[in-house]
Design goal:
The chain folds into 2 domains: about 60 residues; about 60 residues, Arc Repressor Mutant, subunit A (Orthogonal Bundle). It contains 5 helices and no strands.
Length: about 180
């Protein structure tokens, strides 16, 4: 019976040794798990830091894009304002041109009413000066000067007929060239 007890004690010792080896192996594996957990924690922290850095860079880039868009918008608004001003000037020029056309048509009407006496004086080369002191509005004088100039009368004769200075006649005649 002693052999039986010795066998049981030996089996018990073998079980205890096996359990101890198992415990040591499990502790070693748990340390490996802890190392893996630490490594993964470090990798996760590193990934989070990289993501934060990327977010900062994206924010800076988006700020840059927004500022460039605002600059471009201001440039576009400036160009639109300039175009609007030019359009306004163009409309003014068109209005002035239409007014000029109306004045030209009125001038043509007024010229057709000028007596034929002036034309007869040109043909006979006799220049009969008009009375000094005759008041003619500038527009009417200008129209007369232009019509006579278009008909080929020289500036000296026009000055005598209209009681105006020769320089003034030449100035008005240059305006139509």
């Amino acid at each position: 019976m002693t052999a039986f007890f010795v066998c049981i004690i030996l089996i018990g010792i073998a079980i205890v040794i096996t359990a101890m080896i198992w415990i040591v192996v499990e502790r070693k594996k748990s340390r490996d798990y802890r190392l893996e957990i630490d490594e993964r924690r470090y990798e996760l922290q590193k990934t989070i830091e990289e993501a934060e850095q990327l977010l900062i860079e994206l924010n800076n880039f988006s700020d840059y894009i927004v500022s460039r868009m605002e600059e471009k918008q201001q440039e576009i608004e400036f160009v639109i304002e300039a175009a609007a001003e030019k359009a306004g000037l163009f409309e003014k020029i068109n209005d002035q041109a239409s007014n000029t056309n109306q004045l030209n048509s009125e001038t043509d009407d007024a010229v057709s009413e000028i007596p034929e006496i002036a034309l007869k004086q040109e043909k006979h080369t006799e220049v009969i000066p008009m009375k000094k002191g005759k008041i003619i509005s500038f527009d009417a004088k200008k129209r007369e000067v232009l019509n006579l100039y278009k008909k080929g009368v020289n500036s000296t004769e026009i000055a005598r007929m209209l009681n105006m200075g020769k320089g003034e006649i030449e100035l008005i005649s240059r305006m139509i060239k």
